[in-house]
Amino acid sequence: MKTPWWLPFGSVPELSAAELAEALARPLPPQLVDVRSGAEYAAGRIAGARHAPVTSLAARLDALGLDPARPVVAICLTAHRSIPAVRMLLRLGFDARQLAGGMLAWRAAGLPEARGTHDPGRPGAPAGEER
Q1: How far apart are the C-alpha atoms of 34 and 40, rounded to whole Å?
Q2: Do the Cβ atoms of 103 and 76 come closer than 8 Å?
Q3: Cα-flanking dihedrals φ and ψ of residue 22, to 5°?
Q4: What element of type H or E holds 14?
Q5: What local confidence, expressed as pLDDT, does residue 116 receive?
Q6: Between the CA of residue 86 and those of 97, 98, 111, what are the distances in Å?
Q7: Which of the 8 DSSP states describes residue 130?
Q8: Rounded to whole angstroms, how far apart are CA atoms 71 and 129?
Q9: Angle subtended by helix axes 82-91 and 57-64, to nearest 10
Q10: What pLDDT score was predicted for residue 123?
């Protein structure tokens, strides 16, 4: 039996924090979707990540303006909530994967974070700060 997309366990394609950092430095980086809560997103995220909590991802997907021809990386705190996000994106034909270990792995690698409520998926949102 195929695992339902919304179950937050199982395996999905993923990449490490180092692999994501390398991919983000390329001329055409992957698209980032942060599926954590608003408070988590504002407290620290990967610069350029669009925000859509996993509980509202299906409803907000069109508003995110994702390019189906470019890879998408789903991000959460521990790579738990991003699993159903990746499954949904794969079902819709996106080349999707999750950040292995989530933001905890990103932080453990000492990689940069942006703070604040700026969301590139929401035009007119205030700019965030790098930390």
Answers
A1: 9
A2: yes
A3: -65, -45
A4: strand 14-15
A5: 83
A6: 6, 6, 22
A7: E
A8: 25
A9: 60
A10: 44
Q: pLDDT value at position 10?
A: 81
CATH class of 14-121: alpha beta
What are the residues facing 97 on neighbouring strands? Answer: 73
Contact between 102 and 75 under an 8 Å Cβ cutoff? The reply is yes
Sequence-separated (6 or more) residues with CB below 8 Å from residue 54: 35, 36, 76, 81, 82, 84, 85
H helical segments located in the chain = 17-24, 38-43, 57-64, 82-91, 102-108
The phi-psi region of residue 21 (left if phi > 0; otherwise alpha if psi is between -120 and 50; otherwise beta) is alpha
Full DSSP string of 29-66: PPEEEE-S-HHHHHH-B-TT-EE--GGGHHHHHHHHT-
Contact 90, 84 (CB under 8 A): no
The whole model's pTM is what?
0.86
CA distances from 22 to 2, 18, 27, 43, 57 (A): 33, 6, 11, 23, 26
The segments of the chain whose pLDDT lies below 70 read: 1-9, 118-131
Structural domain spans, the chain? 14-121
pLDDT recorded at residue 120:
63
